[in-house]
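Exercise 7.
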Amino acid sequence: MVLKVFDRLSASQARTDEKADPWTLDIEQRYHQFLLDSGESDSSGEDGNDEDGEGNDDEDGVDYSDDEEDEEEDGEKKEQKGWIAPRYEADLHNLMHRLHRTEAEAYQALKDRQGEDIPRFLACITIPSSSPMQEESLIEHVDMPGILLQNINGFHLADLAQHAPRETWQFICEDAIRVTNLLYNRGILNKDVKTRNLIVRKALKGNFKVFMIDFALCRFRREYKSDNNWRVKHTKTERVRWVLSCRGICKEALPITGLLSMKS
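Solution. The predicted structure, written as tokens, is:
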């Protein structure tokens, strides 16, 4: 069993992407005070998405720069900087919950494929914050969402050559493409298709099976207002070919013509 936690405190990549500083106890204290001062109201807007499925990064019109050119007094700059850090924490909190909801929805949409092409989804959980200064009224703004999943014992697709006989490489890569297309046919676009998110498990009699993991960055057909917008956002097998080629798998693990001749 695997516990996947959507934790803003240690989400280093998300913090980098959002231009937030590494988490510290001081930042957490300011975040809690920020929530109290704002009455635990909507401390940050959700990341907006338009009908075409495109994010609107500047929806709230806030400039998060620490050095705005139009600031005239140092006092105003310090006040703004003190406000930015807790606002980032609020944004990250909302982001973690949005990613959690997306992943849970993807698993539910693929319920009949759990244990076959994706891990089994066991439960959604909430992990209480261990912050020593937490107040009861702030629970929903600081607790962390998580999911319990089946553990898939295997190796990353990128390590194919080190773990599987050469004669199985073609079949394994074809299975990876099949799983990717399965999501598309169910109205799910996984924008995080990477070799590290494709796990190969050795089955009985020496066979191998590919499982896809990590669906937090999925988009759904209902988010696109037309079939054309949906199709152009999804590259089907070309996406997997590109990933495999970039990691050297197509070139070294199997004939590239074998993939190019495949139908989706």
